[in-house]
Structures are given as C-alpha cells and as structure tokens.
Design a protein that fits this description.
The protein is mainly alpha-helical. The protein has helices at 2-7, 15-41, 51-64, 93-98, 103-114, 133-139, 147-158, 173-176, 184-197, 214-223, 241-245, 252-264, 271-276, 282-288, and strands at 66-68, 74-76, 166-167, 224-225, 234-235, 292-293. A two-stranded antiparallel ribbon has the order 1-2. The protein has a two-stranded parallel ribbon with strand order 3-4. A two-stranded parallel sheet has the order 5-6. The longest helix has 27 residues, at 15-41. The termini are far apart.
C-alpha cells in the first residue's frame, strides 16, 4: 500500500488534463481510421472509352503492323498472313534474326536474294551457308512462303525438260545445288557420305543421309544418274583395320574379325570365303560386297 501511495502523484490528473488526454485519444483514433480507409478512396475508377476512340486505336495498331522489304521500303503485310510468320524472300535481316537465324545466315540470305535467288519452299533455305537441319526445324515454324513464289516455281518446273542430268559419283557441290531443295549443307553431306562409301551404287542410298527430306530425295532421283565404274573399292586382303572400319557399312567388330581371319586363315580367295566366315549376315554382305575388291 505504501508503494501505491508513492505512485499516486504520477497518475492523478486535474480536470483540465483529463480533457486533454481525451482529445488526444480522439485525434489518434481519427488518424488511424483515415489511414485504414485511404487506399480504398484512392482506387482508380474504370476507364471509359467511346466507340470512336476504340476504332481509332484499332486502325492505328493495324497500320503499325508493317514489314520491311529488301530495299528498306515499307509495305503492309498480307491480311491473311499471321503476324508471327515471315517470307524469307522479302524479310529484312533484322526480321530473319528475330525468328532464329544467325547474323551470318541472315546476311547470306540477303546476298542470295540480291543475286536473283528465290526461295520456293522452306527446304530451299538449306542452300544457305549457316542453315543446318537443327536450326531449320525451329526456324521453319516461323516461315511462310507467299503464293506468288510457289507459282513461279511451278512455271520453272514446266521448263525442267532442259535440265541436264547430273552424275552423282562425280558431281561437286556447285552442280548438286542446282537441284531444287539441295543447298550447300545437303550438297556437302552428299559428297561427304559418297567419300565415306567410295561412291553410290544406287540412288536409294541417299535416304541414309541425315537431314535429306523426301521431296529433295525425289528431285535428286529425277535429275541424277549413277556411274558405278567410278566406285573406289576397299582392298579386302590388304587394307588395315582403321581403313576398313571407316566404311559406313562395316562395324569396328567386323573390321577386327576380318584382320583376325587374315592372320589365322590367310587371304580371302573369293567372296564365298567371306560369306563362310560369318563375319557378315547375308543382308550386310549384299550391301558391302560392291565396295570390296580381292587383291
């Protein structure tokens, strides 16, 4: 009790002090209330727009959807063409890069067009240095060749009777790219695979080349011939293991088996010996025998 009496002077107020405390508490309460409701009072009212303003915005947005042609002039895109697709025959380098072409490939496309080149189908882009099958799969989804170019392709195909046939085992890249759908990439792969094989025996072997599309294969078959006298054959009895296993139709295991046979039995006197060795199945032997020579 004595302790409470000592604290009593600190908690006793005069009538005037009591009124002051009440007023202060009221001010604090009002401040807290205003702070709580203020965010609700400051919310934006829904914006209203007239029909005329809406039409103006639509027309302005449409007029901004333009594409750059090769000379840097602007023209409105085809209404029926999706905004996210471009025509490689008219698109600027910036547009080409924006859909996935490398800067190097985009510049080569412009050079190709400046020399009079035309893309009649998406696969024609394989003619361009810097375009490979991996990037093409992604980029092709953003490309649309306009009908005017497709019609030109039909007109040119009508005059294809004047096209000179190409011999597949001796042609270089400059000849191969004359065939529709064959660009520098595919042309290079044909020559590389031809070198690995030793030459082509039949046109169906082209289907073994990575990235060769069916329509391109059909064009090659139509415009190419094969001279089998140009084949470079593999000497079965003298070639070393590394040389033998480099052939696409011979596995590393089979190359080792050939050398082991030569060491234990001797040279292959005929292809009948090769068949009896069971190194190759009948199907495998039929594929490889045209590339082998006994010596």
């Amino acid at each position: 009790m004595l302790f409470l009496k000592k604290l009593e002077p600190y908690f006793s107020f005069t009538p005037g002090e009591r009124r002051g405390v009440i007023v202060l508490l009221c001010i604090m309460g009002v401040s807290i209330f205003i702070r709580i409701i203020m965010p609700f009072l400051q919310r934006d009212k829904p914006a209203t727009i007239t029909v005329e303003e809406l039409n103006f915005k639509i027309n302005t947005t449409y007029q901004k959807k333009i594409v750059d042609n090769n000379d840097g002039n602007n023209f409105f895109s085809d209404i029926n063409q999706p905004d996210d697709k471009i025509d490689p025959n008219t698109a600027s380098a910036e547009k080409l890069i924006s859909i996935g072409f490398s800067k190097f490939a985009a510049q080569n496309i412009l050079k190709y067009r400046n020399k009079g080149g035309v893309f009649y189908s998406n696969s024609d882009l394989y003619k361009i240095y810097g375009v490979d099958s991996t990037s093409f799969e992604i980029i092709s989804k953003s490309i649309r060749i306009k009908n005017q170019w497709k019609q030109t392709a039909k007109d040119e195909n009508a005059n294809s009777s004047n096209f000179q046939l190409i011999e597949l085992n001796s042609a270089d890249t400059s000849l191969l790219i004359k065939i529709s759908g064959v660009g520098y990439v595919i042309g290079g792969r044909i020559i590389k695979y031809r070198s690995q094989l030793g030459g082509f025996v039949k046109k169906e072997q082209l289907k073994e080349i990575y990235g060769l599309e069916e329509n391109t294969y059909s064009n090659i078959v139509k415009y190419c011939t094969i001279d089998t006298t140009l084949l470079i054959k593999l000497p079965l009895n003298s070639a070393d293991e590394i040389t033998i296993e480099k052939h696409p139709y011979i596995t590393k295991y089979q190359a080792k088996a050939i050398l082991k046979y030569r060491k234990l039995v001797g040279k292959f006197e005929s292809f009948a010996d090769l068949k009896q060795s069971n190194i190759f199945s009948d199907e495998e032997l039929n594929k490889i025998i045209a590339y082998l020579i006994l010596n």
